[in-house]
Protein: Histidine--tRNA ligase
Amino acid sequence: MKYSALKGIQDILPPDIYIWQKIESIAKEIFHKYGFKEIRLPIIESTDIFIRSIGETTDIVEKEMYTFADKAGRSITMRPEGTAPAVRCYVEHHLYTLPSPQKFFYSGPMFRYERPQKGRFRQFYQVGVEAFGVSHPSMDAEIIAMLKNLLEGIGLKELHFELNSIGCDKCRPAYRNALLIFFRDKLSDFCPDCQRRYKINPLRILDCKVERCIELRQRTPLVTDYLCSECREHFEELIFRLQTLKIPYTLNPNLVRGLDYYTRTAFEVTSEHLGAQKAVAAGGRYDKLVEEFGGPQTPAIGFAIGMERIATLLKEKWTGECPAPKVFIATLGKEAEVEGFRIAEDIRAAGFWVELNHGGASLKSQLRKADRIGAELAFIIGENELKDKKVQWKNLKKSEQGEVEIKDILSILT
Structure:
């Protein structure tokens, strides 16, 4: 039987994996400069943490989570996003007792049962950051600046930063009431999901992807018109900080994000080269979530980057060469093969990538293989070379060749 990957799940192979490694390497370098430390989070969590944080009426909880009962009958969910597990970790390990801010980053697979399309998979990868303990808008600006530096550092500059404030517990009730009034007379024209959301959380209607619902949302009241004085002051200070750093942005009053835990700042980074799934990174504040998870009142902010979408954009600009061996050792005869095997280990111990022939093959075939895998040098060992304790070498990139004593073989590798 021939097997294949499940629908919506992909293998990541060379040379694409080198693009992923480049993104991850630059991300770690940038995060280090801003004081973010790596954490490793479990892939599975108690289902309750996602229902409580993301919201019962969100599409993720209602339709997309991979949830199952374990052998003890507990409801387990494969993480659909990283913030809720990060908050659970922060509270469980009492990290709030440490000096603020506590700043972390993580990476790995997330899982959502969605209709697969370009840039959207059922197992997808994210790099995420979370900063706990600072409410001042300077932290918001720092997070956005770090994201901009990261995206530019991996070679992506033609991106759009969209920004909004979605208020807090003080001003959200007035906005919620405005939405109830606005949607009331046309509610029967909305999809069944939105009709249910109207009763539970009308803000969720703003996140519906059904085309008819999007049309009915035209001229919806803007959340920024209902901000309380504290939220408005926070937002204005954030904008001032971004202008100070000369970070371009677009105010998008319709940006509400798809998760219930967000408060105040919300932002997305988008590209026009990805089709319908154009967001490559998104984030915002969630100042109440730590408290809801049993910790002390702790402001927090973070973002997540979609690795598949970033890699797709970067692949179009990729000019780097795929890694290749420094040396290929071609041998003729059993004794030469054994000596080549020993030499390969010496060269690897010196820090170089070495490939060699395993089993019998003609010299022509071995050199052809060395060229195909992109080796820089080919070392040739036969009976005469063994007798003279030398190897023949060829530089396959420069068409140069010569010989060197085996004891001096490392001298031509540097």
Remarks:
- Residues 327-412 form a domain with the Rossmann fold fold (CATH 3.40.50.800).
- The mean pLDDT is 91.
